[in-house]
Structure formats: structure tokens, C-alpha cells
Amino acid sequence: MRNLCRALPLALFYALLTIGSCVAECVPFTEAAKHVGETRCIKGQVVRVEQGNRGVHYLDFCQDYRLCPFTVVVFASDLRHVGDVRHLAGQSIEVHGHIREYNGRPEIILREARQLSGEAANIPPLPKTYDVERRGNYSAGTITRSKSTGKTPQTKQKAKYPTDVPRDLSAEE
After folding, report:
1. CA angle 42, 100, 22 (to 5 degrees)
2. Cα–chain-centroid distance for residue 105?
3. Taking the model in full, what pTM does it have?
4. Count of alpha carbons within 13 Å of 53, Cβ hemisphere only?
5. Could you give the CA distance from residue 63 to residue 17 in angstroms, rounded to a whole number?
6. 8 domain-assigned
7. What is the CATH number of the domain that holds 83?
8. Looking at 8-12, 48-52, 101-105, 106-110, which range is the least confident one?
9. Mean pLDDT of 158-164
10. Mapping DSSP to helix (H, G, I), strand (E, B) and coil, where does residue 90 land?
């Protein structure tokens, strides 16, 4: 009985270690399609970070994103929790999360910085002057003219009032 009491904690420790190593093991991004619906760790090298409509950022693992078997999506509302994802371009990353299928391709939605591990976990926070909709070309407190029209803004003309106001004859009657 004594030996069993001594061996049980050791056996439990090894069981937890084995389970933890299976869960923490990252699979290459090329195998993400095999794990749709699971919560896993996916690893790969980010080729580039693209910004789409409404400030959504995509971490591309292939030169041609249309042929790539996996992508990581960061919505504009999550950027403040994740950080400046532009710094992930060229880095090998490990991203943890629920793998779901969107338009026939597996993806993980990156919502928090803690989903990243390794060197990618130390990305800087988003600059305070970064405006997602303007792709970083915004500086708080300054107004710039739109360059798309090429026209100077028109000013409103002042209303012209007659200098002589005619008398109201009906008021005198």
C-alpha cells in the first residue's frame, strides 16, 4: 500500500506531462485542414501582413494567399488586445485557437496577444496614432484635405442683403 501511495503521485505527474505535451504540440499550417473544429496550435512563418477592408488584418503564410491552406485573421476591434501585427511579417509564429473553416479554408481568429507564443508573443502595442481605417496615416488633431479630388475646398459665400429695405405698406394701413 505504501508503494502505491508513493507511485500514484509520480504516475499522475507523468500522465499530466504527457497530456500537456500532446495539447501544446503545434502542427504546421499545411496540416490545419485536418484539425478544423479543434482548438490547436498552428505554426508557420508569416510571409506578409495584409490589411483588408474595415481594418481587418490577415497573416499570410504563402506568397499567394488564394492558394494558401491556412490564414490568421485579426479584426480591427481586436488590434488593441493583440498589438501591432505588422511586426509579425517575416517571423515564425505559433498561434493557438479554435480552427474554423471560412470560404473553404481553415483559419484562426487572433483576438488576444496571449494566443501567440514564442518570439511573436513580444510584439509591440499598437501606436496611439494608428487609425485602422486610414491604414496608419492618421494623426490625431490634424485635418488634411482629401487628395483624391485634386480640387481645393469651396468656401461658402456670404449672403447678400439689399442695402435698402423697402417699406412694408400693409403695416401702415
Report:
1. 40
2. 18
3. 0.61
4. 0
5. 38
6. no
7. 2.40.50.140
8. 8-12
9. 62
10. coil
